[in-house]
Amino acid sequence: ISVTPISQAGCCGAVDYHLNAQEAGLNRARRNIDAWWPGIENGAEAIVQTASGCGAFIKDYGHLLRHDPAYAARAAQVSALARDLVEVLRDEPLEQLGVKATTSIAVHCPCTLQHGQKLGGAVEQLLTGLGFNLTPVPDSHMCCGSAGTYSLTQPELSRQLRDNRLNALESGQPQLIVSANIGCQSHLDGAGRTPVRHWIELLDDTPG
Asked: Which of 9, 36, 103, 169 lies 20 to 30 A from 139 at CA?
């Protein structure tokens, strides 16, 4: 796999859009499409996101810009090429990394991954295949309370959801919690309980 960073690309637009600044969010989408387009014309096979919240929104660019004659076709192609990181890596021979998986882990599957992108269980399957011990997580479909900007606009309810989610995640006594979305990660980790990281950081730091 070869990776080409696109420095001109920026925020996906989801935060603006969900705060009722739809046009600002769509303008961010347009700028990203413009930034990615030369790479697409040069044969890029995927646009990869490490945050599932961003990925869910980018996969919706085609729908959101469907009535924009200048961007509709390109937005649809960008959405078709958008991939969460797990969609790319799960098909690779990761066993060649020789990961020595000794940490017990609970996986928090973000709403934007399991409901938005229909990729529930993909991270768990990848980590299990590498030999990690995944502890059981009750009510794995539940939200952690981050929910985009919800943790800022409804902090009390958000903290209650976070604590409920952590109780479920910690019920199997994991050494570490991993997620696939930066919003979930920072929100859960903010409680100061079991450490929370992005799952790709775990692979990067685990000795092989």
From this structure: 103
Total domains, the chain: 2
The 3-state secondary structure of 69-87, one letter per residue? CCCHHHHHHHHHHEEEHHH
In a domain, 1, yes or no: no
Residues 6+ apart with CB under 8 A from 60: 79
User: What's the predicted TM-score (pTM) here?
Assistant: 0.91
Q: Which domain holds residue 179?
A: 94-205
Closest-CA residue to 32 (of 53, 52, 14, 50): 14
101 and 50 fall within a common domain: no
Asked if residue 112 and residue 59 are part of one domain, the reply reads: no
